[in-house]
Specification:
alpha+beta, 3-stranded antiparallel beta sheet, two-stranded antiparallel sheet, 3 helices, 39% helix
Length: 130
């Protein structure tokens, strides 16, 4: 959070930072913690971001994006709530389509195989007559 460094920034960039592995004190089943020296992390942040000003700009941009996402989520929940309250204005069509078939037609070049088509949705069914 403070330095906006990813795992690849810590592990894959040269020189690779050394760390101490410890069990997670919050829950033993979670992954192990990696403890780095703060001075080395600060130097790596300067290497990645170039300057402290660029790091601050990136933090501000991340905070702005987080705020935008929160607002979008709130607006979506508010819209859903309005739709559920005003059910008379908005009704989801849950009625299923029932096929009305045209008269059956024999399929060319086959014996005892017929086909019928729905007049509304162009759904086709082939079947065999005994």
């Amino acid at each position: 959070q403070t330095y906006l460094l990813s795992d690849s920034d810590m592990d894959k960039r040269d020189p690779i930072l050394r760390y101490i592995s410890r069990k997670n004190p919050h829950n033993e089943r979670w992954g192990e913690m990696r403890l780095y020296l703060e001075k080395q992390v600060m130097d790596r942040a300067l290497l990645v971001w170039g300057s402290w000003d660029e790091l601050d700009d990136a933090k501000d941009k991340q905070a702005d994006n987080r705020q935008i996402l929160k607002q979008k989520k709130f607006d979506k929940k508010l819209k859903d709530l309005r739709m559920s309250v005003r059910s008379s204005l908005w009704a989801k069509d849950t009625k299923r389509h029932e096929h009305t078939f045209l008269p059956e037609v024999p399929v060319p070049e086959t014996e005892d195989v017929y086909m019928k088509t729905c007049s509304e949705c162009e759904y086709t069914v082939q079947f065999e007559k005994l």
